[in-house]
Amino acid sequence: MTQLKHLDNSPPTPGKFKMDKSPYIHRLRWHGSLAKLTFWSFIFLGLILIFFFRSPSSNSLPSDPSRRSLRTYNWGGPAWEKRVRSSARVRSRHGMSVLVTGAAGFVGTHVSAALKRRGDGVLGLDCFNDYYDPSLKRARQALLERSGVFIVEGDINDSALLSKLFEVVAFTHVMHLAAQAGVRYAMENPGSYVHSNIAGLVNLLEVCKNANPQPAIVWASSSSVYGLNTKVPFSERDRTDQPASLYAATKKAGEEIAHTYNHIYGLSLTGLRFFTVYGPWGRPDMAYFFFTRDILKGKTIPIFEAANHGTVARDFTYIDDIVKGCLASLDTAEKSTGSGGKKKGPAQLRVFNLGNTSPVPVSDLVTILERLLKVKAKRNIMKLPRNGDVPFTHANISSAQRELGYKPTTDLQTGLKKFVRWYVSYYSGGKKASG
Ligand SMILES: NC(=O)c1ccc[n+]([C@@H]2O[C@H](COP(=O)([O-])OP(=O)(O)OC[C@H]3O[C@@H](n4cnc5c(N)ncnc54)[C@H](O)[C@@H]3O)[C@@H](O)[C@H]2O)c1
Ligand SMILES: *[C@@H]1O[C@H](CO)[C@@H](O)[C@H](O)[C@H]1NC(C)=O
Ligand SMILES: *[C@@H]1O[C@H](CO)[C@@H](O)[C@H](O)[C@H]1NC(C)=O
Predict the structure, then answer these.
(1) What is the DSSP letter of 298?
(2) Residue nearest to atom 3 of ligand 2 (CA)
(3) Residues with catalytic roles
(4) Torsion of CA 361, 367, 372, 378, to 10 degrees
(5) What is its EC number (predicted)?
(6) Atom of ligand 1 nearest to the CA of 104
(7) Could you tell me whether strands 269-274 and 277-278 are parallel, antiparallel, or unpaired per DSSP bridges?
(8) What pLDDT, on the 0 to 100 scale, is given for residue 386?
(9) How confident is the model over 175-231, as pLDDT tens digits?
(10) Is there an atom of ligand 1 within 6 Å of 198 CB?
(11) Cα(356) to centroid(ligand 3), Å
């Protein structure tokens, strides 16, 4: 299985796959929205089935986050509330008070630190699951703690905890980054996608809807929703009805759920479709990260190619650019318009691509890493397995450019140099890379 853990796990996306020619897709085209509705009904039905057939006793994987949700977290009490309040306290004049879910994650850590730096109030929430090495999440937590950000340990599907947080702090914004990421993990633990990306998201939106005042919500979708699209670059209006993985399906479902809460309850919602984010403190399950580890170890790395020796490429986006896009989204988010379960008027609903707009072949990524690490990689060219990865991603960012002033400035060479510098220093302190 490890050799299949290849490309970056997260933003799987699209390209020139033959599946595009299948009769099924043609039918979709002819029957338009009816077929689309049927299609999504099936996806939802599937998710519900997966959800219900996974009884806790039927799965004893120690790394199953759904089981972990049965774990009781320690929260509550005057000392805890004091820490929560102090972390969320706004320190600049027009600052906001933000709940950041997934704060011990890669993107969550960087966004939390950036918000705190400019004087916003920040409270983190994370369950520290072991989808990848939890010690890396703990190290990020320690980093945030030093800058005054407290991460509450708990699950986004815990409604009592979320309600309590909103009782203690009147958050003006929620930056929702907690999710089950990665595409290949679905073979091992499909329920974790339902738990975090569907049930957890609904729970979060329910609590936000009930909060008074309601916060504005910015959340991470994924470029994977473009699925097996062949039209590039991907624009926000392009079709998103051909997911290539359960991960992508839950992100797409999340977008539909978010729209629903916007329509019915007046929640202000902004969905961000990230394209292969990389950088210091990154995710060990992603290709750039474990390529670095394996090249240094002298281990052979699998490099995928698409059908007919086609190139597999990714629109790699440096973390600092993503952070700027997240902060700009929060800054331009309008207030939610509902209260008491009813909306008083239409609320803002947005979706943006946050990419770099220049796809790089994965073999070029390896060449850059070889140069930075001064080690030659042992390459094993393999066919791209049909288990969730897509051959190609490329973002059209004109919408984010126009409305957020988003403009990525870090190219892959520059960004990888910073990643490698971090990697070497982090793992030379006696710590071992794992995953
Ligand atoms: N990194 C990328 O390239 C990329 C690309 C597209 C989309 N995204 C999305 O961006 C978001 C952040 O991604 P990341 O790369 O930082 O991933 P990450 O795995 O590093 O961070 C997610 C964090 O959420 C936490 N979490 C998961 N389920 C939870 C739950 N039920 N309750 C509380 N905490 C929970 C995890 O412990 C983890 O720390 C995710 O929604 C991901 O799907 C990331
Ligand atoms: C999420 O929480 C709800 C309500 O507490 C619970 O019934 C459900 O089992 C949880 N869902 C998952 C997938 O863990
Ligand atoms: C990018 O998206 C915009 C809409 O936001 C569209 O007008 C434009 O034509 C797209 N560009 C390309 C090259 O597809």
Answers:
(1) T
(2) 157
(3) 247
(4) 120
(5) 5.1.3.6
(6) 39
(7) unpaired
(8) 79
(9) 999 999 999 999 999 999 999 999 999 999 999 999 999 999 999 999 999 998 889
(10) no
(11) 15
For the beta carbon of residue 361, count every other beta carbon within 10 angstroms.
15
List pLDDT tens digits, range 253-300.
999 999 999 999 999 999 999 999 999 999 999 999 999 999 999 999
Helix (H) or strand (E) holding 220: strand 216-222
- Ligand closest to 403 (CA) is 3
* Ligand 1 binding pocket includes 155 (Cβ within 6 Å): yes
Ligand 3 pocket residues where CB is under 6 Å: 233, 235, 396, 398-399
Q: What parts of the chain have a pLDDT lower than 50?
A: 1-30, 34, 39, 42-45, 47-66, 433-435
Angstrom distances, CA of residue 76 to CA of 84, 127, 141, 174: 10, 16, 19, 20
Query: Taking the mean position of all CA atoms in its chain, how far away is CA 325?
Result: 14
Tokens of 10: 């997260």
Kindly list the structural domains of the chain, giving each domain's residue range(s) and its CATH number in brackets, ordered by start.
179-276+317-355+394-409 (3.40.50.720)
Question: CA 14, 17, 20: angle at the middle one, nearest 5?
Answer: 95
Question: What's the rounded Cα separation, in Å, for the pair 435 and 426?
Answer: 15
Tokens 């072949």 correspond to 361
State the number of CA atoms in the 13 A half-sphere of 84 facing the CB: 21
278: region left, alpha or beta (phi > 0 left; psi from -120 to 50 alpha): beta
Judged by phi (left if over 0) then psi (alpha if -120 to 50, else beta), residue 99 lies in beta
**173, 217 Cβ separation under 8 angstroms:** yes
- The residue type at 72: T
